[in-house]
Amino acid sequence: MQSPEERSLGFLLFVAVVFVAPASRRRFEYSCRSENPPAGRRRHENRASICSLIAISGVLKSAAMSRRCSSRYEREARKCGWQRIAGLDEVGRGSLFGQVVAAAVILDPKRRIVGLDDSKKLPAERREILALRIREHALAWAIAEVDARRIDAWNIYQASRQAMAEALSQLKISPDYLLLDAMQLDVLVEQKSLIHGDAISVSIAAASIIAKVERDRQMREWDRIYPQYGLARHKGYATPDHLAALRAHGPTPHHRFSFAPVREAACWSAGATQVALPLPAF
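Predicted structure:
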């Protein structure tokens, strides 16, 4: 079943191919057949042809951009002999609260999952549907996490790497090639790091989606324990209402104290002001 975006793109391509391109070609052929068309008509037809070509190129560019997340890197790896290709990604790296969650996914090349993309670009309902399909059709998948205390002890970068390494170790099928989102792991497996990998690789996008769905579920559970922070709404990120709640209630034990907004909210003098005293006149 196609998504609304895919149906819209198909309609635009249909209009470009069936209506715009033939009309542009007919105008071009007419101008070639006319021995001496009026100058005004010639300028008008040339301008119309250029506009038509610009419209076609815009549609094709939109189509190319919408298909940016693809299996290109997976196909290149298979051409080199790698077969068990795992995509890895993490979510919650910039959050002020809770754990960082990582996932590893080995997709089945024979079972295409339509609509995979960076989890941040997808609505929550779409992510839930795709997460179910990934779990159902992937050859293997695993999720791991690192809590706030270890994030404070190690720093968020090392905690993210540790979560990804743990997810990798939990896979039921050992991969022989890794695709990662701007990251390198200290494991003896061939790997490729891709900038914005979750937007250009379907394997990394799949890992991003199931990690995001899992962490959002955890934030909804934490919201029932700490309702004053609105965690179900902002997922622990530094939104204005979250920062206001931190100033009003202080941080919980599950906030990340190595992050400046949390550390400042925990300080007894946070938000304090000092009134300038008048100097005595001599």
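Summary: The chain has three domains: 8-66, 72-213, 221-266.
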